[in-house]
Write a structure and sequence with these properties.
By secondary structure, this protein is of the alpha+beta class. The chain is built from 9 helices and 5 strands; from the N terminus they run H-H-E-E-H-E-H-E-E-H-H-H-H-H. The protein starts with a helix and ends in a 9-residue tail after the last helix. Its EC number is 2.7.13.3.
Length: 339
Amino acid sequence: MKSLYSKFLAATLFIMVISSFTGFFIANAYYQNNLKPENDSKNMEIAMNIAQYAETQENLDQYLKHAASTGYQLYVVDRQGERHSFGGSFDEKNLPFQTVENVLNGENYHGMRDFPKKTFVTGFFANELRNSVGVPFTHDSTQYALFMRPDIKLLFNEIHVLLGWMGLAIFILSLIAVLIWAAMIIRPVRQLSHATNKVGEDGFDIDLDIHRKDEIGQLAQNFKDMISRLGELDKLRRTFVSNVSHDIQTPLLNIQGYSRLLEDKTLSEDDRYNYLKVIQEEAKKMSTLSRQLLTLSSLEQKEKPLFRNRFKVTGQLKSLLHRYYWLIDENNLSLSYSF
């Protein structure tokens, strides 16, 4: 049987994994629908500025190298089909020929905005030539097509490591905190479970050391109150059974004693009648006690109020002496009394 602690840990890990995937999907959807057009527009403006300054430079290659060193990947194509890369290289140079021709003819290319949506690749990190922006420019009467995108490896190399370690630290610290918190919650529950088992083995004398002000603390207090009341009820039942057992034994002895006296054939009719009357009274008393035993199962846990009444014990004492006459006679005793 799995413990509550292991179930809590498994549920926590499951929630963390599901939350991570859900958060990634939400962030990816937000980028695709909101940030990607904005990112395309921003990079298009930068590409147009680079192209504008490139038209006024004497040494085009040196200028493009300097521009790429600021954190961009540049890919330049001229009319003759010569291709030059500046800065970081693209993983895939999958730009269609017609797209290059369109840019050479003066059109702008919005590859970032129109990059296909993917579930596990946001597009921002896809290092592909088609995931770029393209602008035309002219240098020394030669038409060029400039394709540009930020160099993610250059810009995010250190921050990737930092974010990775940060994410790992957050995950480990969160897991440790959850384990400690779960242990604090599970500990009193285990104490309650142990106390419940101890009640079945050792009775109602339980010392439950739980002092909390939350629902578990309230549960522990209710458990203590229940154990206390059950202990009182158990004592009441034991006392009741002990008293009833004693009260049953007494009339049985009286019946047995007077039965032996009735075996005496020299008894007068009056004595015989009196002895039989005592036996009948004792039998009635046993019947009453048997009915009282039936009330044992219906004893209430709540205490009932007691009412005091005056009572004369003279009749009780006479009846008591009359019932035990057989025992006095059997021991050859003489007893006198007055009330």
